[in-house]
Amino acid sequence: MATAPRPRTTTRDPEELGRRLTTWLTARLPGAKAANVTVPESNGMSSETLLFDIEHPEPPLTACALRLAADPAAYTVFPVYDMPRQYRTMRLVAERTDIPVPRVLWLEEDPAPLGAPFFVMERVEGRVPPDVMPYTYEGNWLHAASDQERERLEAASVGLLARLHDQVPLPEADFLTLPGEGSPLRRHVEAQRSYYAWVIDGLSCSPLIESAFDRLDELWPSDEGEAVLSWGDARIGNVVYDGFAPAAVLDWEMAALAPREVDLGWTVYLHRFFQDLTASFGQRGLPDFLRRDRVERRYAELTGHTPRDMDFHTLYAALRHAIVMLRVAYRQVHFGEVAVPPDPDTLILHHGSLRAMVQGSYWEGPAAGR
């Protein structure tokens, strides 16, 4: 289900990282050793994850996960990896909400020990809806679940967003204010414009992405709504589930202050991305799961806030995803995995659905998820 070989996710040697991690760990827990160091198959192309156990005569814990900033020499997906910001966000969410987040243990800002800053957290056991192959594709636990079980998972997952947005005191999340001028939404979109400019620096631009930015201006909400702590990467693939209940919420590197609908649009669209991809390969997928109308209704029931301007926010989610995918594609070009096609827009796997959103036709029809 890919148009090119799966991109490499790391240029680091896990064995070497394990040796260096043990040296670092021993300085904090004398006699401790990092054992069973592994890189999970689901390791992303942004911050990297290491799983390890602590061996110690009297261990305060044994199972850990480490989030390591991307190797700056490896054509990173994002220009900046602010590990202290992620660490602080997870602590805030843990302290001020009832959302399950792994307990963070140590923050290391010095790049010397492992080559980049990192933090360590407790490892939470459970299962995660897979990205490769996507959970919408046959052959995984979520696809094999009953409609009632997926209903429980969907309701609990929307509930995470509702509680996050309602429970975090905004003044305490002020450190997540994005730079620039104007409203939180204006700053959020301008940050994406800056990111896009960084992605195409010295390379071919994407007319499709630029037309999507223009369409955002046309659809701009007349009332942007209040800002909340936005998770940023709000999708079920970033949640560890115990059965069908959330056990740990992961990946906070895109957290920021933004309207509620930024997370809702991302949740809806990232599922649709997988669903559209699955349908394009002749499978039914999960068309009744995480439908836009149901997500909006559930969220309104839980918060009293009726989501608005969702055409804008789902387009914005597809646009944000397109910029990431363009960067990933140019990373593949950098490593010689693919060649640049005559039309750079085709490097964006969901260019068809993004174009339909720009044209205003994507959400038309009874099967479109309204």
Automatic annotation (TrEMBL):
Residue ranges annotated for the Aminoglycoside phosphotransferase domain, each copy included: 82-290
Gene3D superfamilies: 3.90.1200.10, Phosphorylase Kinase, domain 1
InterPro entries in the record: ACAD10_11_N, AGP_Transferase, Aminoglycoside_PTrfase, Kinase-like_dom_sf
Protein's recorded name: Phosphotransferase family protein
